[in-house]
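ok new one. same drill as before - C-alpha cells go in, u give me an amino acid for every spot. 245 of them this time. try not to just spam alanines like last time pls lmao
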C-alpha cells in the first residue's frame, strides 16, 4: 500500500514539473529596447519623413526640418567636438482656422524614388512605444497608428502635449491587438504606420512648433525553439519549396 502511494506521489510530482516547465516556456519574457527611428536626419538614415495635413492648412505648411536640439534628460548638456551631430525632427505648422485639424508624419524608404508610404516593422511582441516630444503648452495631442498581421490598423493615443519642454511620452499596447497566433509561425508582429498630431478647437493654430526625438519600443524578443523550428520561417519554407522540383 505504501509502495503504491509512493508511486502515485511520484507521478503527480512528475506531471506538475512537466506542466509547469511547459507553461514557463510559453511565458518566458526577454524585454529589449529597440529604436525604430532616431530622428537624427543622418545621411545614411533608412527613412525619410513626410507630412500630410487636413484642409485649412496654410499654404506652404507644414514644414519639416532637422534642428540641433535634443532632450537633455536623454543625452545630457555637453557634446564633445568629435561627437557626431545630434538633431531632432522639427515640425512648423500653421492652419487658417481653428478646429480639429491634423497633421500626419509618415516614413518612406530613403531609396524609394516614388516616395511611397512605408510601414516600419516592429520587432518582437511589443509592450509599449515611446517618443520624446517637445511641446509649447498647446492643447494638441498625438496618436500612433499600427497595423496588425490581419491588416487592421489600430489607433493608440500617445498623449497630450499641453506642457512646456521635452517629455518622454509612452503608450502601452493593449492585449486586444494580436501579436501572435496559435499556429506556427506564432509570431506575427506589428508595423508602425504613422503618427498624427491633432489640434483642439479652442487652441490657436496660427503658428506652432513641435520637436520629436527617438521613437523606440520595449519589446519581448523571446521565441521558443523546437525541433524543426526553422520550418516555421516563411522565407525558408518558400525557398525550400521553390528548390524542391
Amino acid at each position: 500500500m505504501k509502495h503504491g502511494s509512493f508511486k502515485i506521489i511520484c507521478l503527480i510530482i512528475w506531471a506538475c514539473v512537466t506542466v509547469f516547465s511547459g507553461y514557463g516556456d510559453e511565458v518566458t519574457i526577454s524585454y529589449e529596447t529597440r529604436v525604430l527611428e532616431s530622428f537624427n536626419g543622418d545621411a545614411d538614415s533608412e527613412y525619410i519623413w513626410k507630412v500630410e495635413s487636413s484642409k485649412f492648412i496654410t499654404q506652404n505648411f507644414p514644414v519639416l526640418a532637422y534642428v540641433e536640439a535634443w532632450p537633455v534628460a536623454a543625452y545630457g548638456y555637453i557634446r564633445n567636438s568629435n561627437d557626431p551631430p545630434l538633431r531632432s525632427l522639427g515640425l512648423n505648422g500653421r492652419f487658417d482656422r481653428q478646429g480639429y485639424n491634423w497633421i500626419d508624419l509618415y516614413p518612406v524608404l530613403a531609396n524609394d524614388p516614388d516616395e511611397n508610404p512605408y510601414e516600419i516593422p516592429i520587432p518582437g511582441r511589443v509592450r509599449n512605444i515611446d517618443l520624446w516630444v517637445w511641446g509649447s503648452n498647446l492643447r494638441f495631442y498625438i496618436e500612433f497608428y499600427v497595423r496588425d498581421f490581419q491588416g487592421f490598423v489600430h489607433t493608440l493615443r500617445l498623449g497630450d502635449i499641453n506642457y512646456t519642454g521635452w517629455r518622454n511620452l509612452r503608450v502601452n499596447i493593449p492585449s486586444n491587438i494580436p501579436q501572435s497566433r496559435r499556429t506556427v509561425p506564432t509570431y506575427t508582429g506589428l508595423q508602425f504606420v504613422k503618427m498624427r498630431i491633432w489640434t483642439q478647437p479652442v487652441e490657436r493654430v496660427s503658428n506652432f512648433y513641435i520637436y520629436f526625438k527617438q521613437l523606440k519600443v520595449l519589446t519581448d524578443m523571446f521565441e521558443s525553439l523546437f525541433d524543426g523550428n526553422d520550418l516555421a520561417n516563411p522565407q525558408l519554407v518558400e525557398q525550400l519549396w521553390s528548390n524542391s522540383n
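Helices lie at 2-27, 72-75, 234-242. and btw The radius of gyration is 24 Å.
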